[in-house]
């Protein structure tokens, strides 16, 4: 009797495995293309080039996921979304996954019908000001007008920090970060508040980037990562473990250039990762070469970071916290066995 009662409660709440199994995963596989939500346009993350091809770390992660699913990184449809639009688009089913500089927080994970998957970039909130303002620390920003995007953690972080330090500011709220960049350059606001990587990306596109300074303090933890709906644990697993495979590849010294050669390695971890031993692909209901296809398409995590955000790009970021754990960073793949 008790088992029947508990089963009825689980069914009513949608908690059974059958209710969650395969809903999004099956739809994506049947459609043959991945609908991936990205930023409307920010350098280094997701920005169309002169040919209309989406470039950047987030866009590449979408391609890597498509390669894992279909063996073809081109089987992705990009949906550009503002911060205000992003969660609604995912909740409504317009997109299958959101990969768009989204901070993973407890309230987002527990109250939106969504699931935060895993961290693909560690960041922190900062401020960018005009160099001629001669400000070296954020406490010199009292009374400034600060450009912010509504519906972001940055709006809350800025408000909390100014209140805690008994300082005043005037918010100028605009959905598109590019509009905030234009407002700062034209003098409509005195600063932009957002995550440090985005500040560096915005500054790289300024007409005179040397005229603007990113202040050194960081005021929050801003771990970015993919977001999916709660309707499908199988889909959650595919997204999580595809990202993990890119990190694992860097840990094992596997990259897009040596992948075929590494398939001959006697190392069992490498053989599982690259599908020589098909156990990992089988567990995800994917081709045994799912991870190899993703790595071939976009490289391992280090290649992904360096190509889009690294020191040799206009963004010019060091890895910092995004180094592998073996090099003093926080990037760490769960054991893939």
From TrEMBL:
<feature type="domain" description="Solute-binding protein family 3/N-terminal">
    <location>
        <begin position="33"/>
        <end position="255"/>
    </location>
</feature>
<keyword id="KW-0732">Signal</keyword>
<keyword id="KW-0813">Transport</keyword>
<dbReference type="Pfam" id="PF00497">
    <property type="entry name" value="SBP_bac_3"/>
</dbReference>
<comment type="similarity">
    <text>Belongs to the bacterial solute-binding protein 3 family.</text>
</comment>
<protein>
    <submittedName>
        <fullName>Amino acid ABC transporter substrate-binding protein</fullName>
    </submittedName>
</protein>
<dbReference type="InterPro" id="IPR051455">
    <property type="entry name" value="Bact_solute-bind_prot3"/>
</dbReference>
<dbReference type="InterPro" id="IPR001638">
    <property type="entry name" value="Solute-binding_3/MltF_N"/>
</dbReference>
<feature type="signal peptide">
    <location>
        <begin position="1"/>
        <end position="21"/>
    </location>
</feature>
